[in-house]
């Protein structure tokens, strides 16, 4: 075998072909390297294109989520207003001190409840149906229910880091962090309210109809009076802060649309 290679080497030397074959071999290597580099570049371009398309798809979905949140806030803001007003009215018709929420009392604002049990203006005097309705719905939470599936998926997949606008990312992070806390206090208040009923063995849907003076559910319970007042302030705060959240959305949507590149 060694002799075979020696013969080849001798022939190349005799024919003066060594440098010719060397240049050929080097040229082949250069072509292979260039081909690899071009293939890598094409692959990178393709990956960048797919990543951009993926980001655009997520940005469109995120914009739609925020637009949905905006409409939801528009619907909820009146609910927060009415929640504060109706519970304050319960304190009033029970002869108790009310909470000062003057910012909600404007001539153009409605003072009516529209739900599954009551429709119309608040009664001036004690009305059992109105009272019972408010006592029951006190244990229910008027949730905002923001759409956060897209932002969660973006962060889980890592595509969120591809958003170039740092200010927009800060606004998105602030918005979704605030949303987490938006319903938390009302949820706790509703749970505490229900627990007071459980502790007293009262099931309002049925037991209130048999009470001589249903108002005593409130007037004889300092804890429920306190919970009602906290709930009124919570509704009042949510009524105010929903406007702040709406402003955040209005600021973010144009920035999101500017990030979309088709």
Describe, in short, the structure shown:
This protein has 262 residues and is an all-alpha fold. The chain has helices at 2-15, 18-93, 128-137, 149-157, 166-182, 184-199, 204-207, 216-219, 222-259, and strands at residues 112-114, 119-121.
What can you see in these coordinates?
The chain is 72% helix and 2% strand. The chain is elongated, with a radius of gyration of 35 Å. Helix 2 runs antiparallel to helix 9, helix 5 (166-182) runs antiparallel to helix 9 and helix 6 runs antiparallel to helix 9. The chain has one domain (51-259). It has helices at 2-15, 18-93, 128-137, 149-157, 166-182, 184-199, 204-207, 216-219, 222-259, and strands at residues 112-114, 119-121. By secondary structure, the chain is an all-alpha fold. The chain has a two-stranded antiparallel ribbon with strand order 1-2. The chain contains nine helices and two strands. Strand 1 (112-114) and strand 2 form a beta hairpin. The mean pLDDT is 85.
């Amino acid at each position: 075998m060694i002799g075979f290679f020696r013969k080849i080497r001798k022939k190349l030397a005799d024919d003066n072909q060594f440098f010719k074959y060397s240049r050929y071999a080097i040229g082949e290597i250069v072509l292979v390297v260039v081909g690899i580099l071009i293939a890598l570049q094409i692959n990178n371009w393709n990956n960048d294109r797919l990543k951009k398309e993926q980001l655009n798809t997520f940005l469109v979905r995120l914009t739609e989520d925020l637009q949905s949140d905006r409409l939801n806030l528009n619907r909820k803001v009146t609910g927060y207003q009415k929640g504060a007003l109706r519970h304050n009215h319960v304190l009033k018709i029970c002869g108790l001190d009310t909470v000062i929420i003057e910012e909600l009392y404007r001539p153009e604002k409605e003072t009516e409840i529209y739900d599954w049990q009551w429709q119309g203006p608040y009664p001036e005097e004690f009305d059992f149906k109105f009272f019972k309705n408010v006592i029951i719905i006190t244990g229910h939470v008027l949730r905002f229910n923001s759409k956060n599936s897209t932002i969660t998926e973006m962060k889980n997949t890592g595509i969120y880091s591809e958003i170039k606008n740092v200010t927009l990312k800060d606004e998105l992070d602030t918005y979704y962090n605030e949303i987490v806390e938006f319903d938390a206090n009302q949820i706790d208040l509703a749970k505490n309210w229900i627990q007071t009923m459980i502790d007293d063995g009262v099931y309002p849907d049925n037991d209130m109809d048999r009470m001589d003076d249903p108002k005593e559910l409130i007037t004889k319970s300092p804890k429920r009076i306190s919970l009602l007042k906290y709930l009124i302030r919570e509704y009042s705060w949510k009524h105010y802060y929903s406007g702040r959240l709406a402003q955040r959305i209005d600021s973010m949507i144009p920035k999101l649309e500017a990030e979309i590149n088709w």
